[in-house]
């Protein structure tokens, strides 16, 4: 028995799968991102915390009760208020 014309016009499974995959450079770039992300996570886990006493703002025992979010000793760090100009004076 001979094969039908519909069977001959279908691409093989390998062609169908590769048709929907991104190009090789894109796959290589994604693989590189995964490798670098994994490597940076491993290095960060090995080194440990950068500032051991630093706690998240929403953590237990912190919040508004220990300072209200104010950075003490930072007075005068804002921009100076603009002085008003007399009427008719050029800038």
Note poorly predicted spans. 62-67
Mean pLDDT: 74
Any idea what the radius of gyration is?
A: 32 Å
* Main sheet summary: none
Please estimate the helix content.
40-55%
User: What is the helix tally?
Assistant: 3
Our estimate of the beta-strand percent is: under 5%
Overall number of strands: 0
> What overall geometry do the principal axes of the alpha carbons give?
elongated
Secondary-structure-derived class: mainly alpha
Question: Which sequence of SSEs, written as H and E, runs from N to C?
Answer: HHH
Distance between the termini: 96 Å
Index terms:
91 residues; mainly alpha
Chain-wise SSE layout:
Layout: H1 5-9, H2 13-20, H3 24-47
What does this structure look like?
It is a single chain. Helices cover 41% and strands 0% of the residues. The protein has 3 helices and no strands. The protein has helices at residues 5-9, 13-20, 24-47. Residues 62-67 have low confidence and may be disordered.
What is shown here, in short?
The chain is mainly alpha-helical and 91 residues long.
């Amino acid at each position: 028995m001979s094969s039908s014309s519909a069977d001959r016009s279908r691409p093989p499974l390998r062609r169908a799968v590769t048709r929907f995959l991104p190009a090789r450079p894109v796959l290589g770039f994604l693989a590189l991102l995964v490798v670098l992300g994994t490597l940076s996570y491993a290095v960060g886990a090995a080194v440990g915390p950068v500032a051991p006493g630093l706690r998240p703002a929403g953590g237990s025992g912190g919040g508004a009760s220990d300072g209200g979010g104010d950075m003490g000793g930072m007075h005068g760090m804002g921009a100076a208020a603009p002085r008003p100009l007399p009427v008719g004076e050029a800038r």
